[in-house]
Amino acid sequence: xxxxCGVLLLGLSFAINTGPPPGASDTQLLExxxxxxxxxLWGAWLQAVGPALIVLFAFSLVxxxxxxxxxxxxxxxxxxxxxxxxxxxEITFYIGALHPxxxxxxxxxxxxxxxxxxxxxxxxxxxxxxxxxxxLRGSExxxxxxxxxxxxxxxxxxxxxxxxxxxxxxxxxxxxxxxVQALWWLAAxxxxxxxxxxxxxxxxxxR
Length: 207
What we know:
Blueprint: H1 2-16, H2 26-35, H3 37-64, H4 71-96, H5 105-137, H6 144-163, H7 172-175, H8 178-206
């Protein structure tokens, strides 16, 4: 349930906090902040809580796979910490952009947000998906397809991070790739629930 709720909250955060129009002036950014003050703050809150639930789900997968004492398990913990840290830094600048002083605060915050988004592709997403994929590939917690898919996502995100490393602001199609990882978490959470039901149903009948 943590995985499902985390993805839903994360999706809702982006739905209500769409961001200002590209190329907006300082005055336009200030007007956007005034009109969308509550949406930005609630979106920031949701973007903090959603990843925290997803991290809880990732830790649970490592625990159920019995990989807490293996290097792949430790690295999953490290990657999840990086993912949460990057998300919190980005949220900080969402809130910072709402401050009316100095006048350039909005533009400065957007610049920092663009910089932080690089970290998601370069380290945060690959650092969690690669070791988690190795954990799942060697366990029966989920179908092994999820392990291979996680490794593929790690390679995909790292590749795009390297390709666009010299681009200060990532193109919208690239940042939209972040939604792919949400689909993985959602599918993994649903698959875990279904597998748990299948395992427990015969045991209940035997009683």
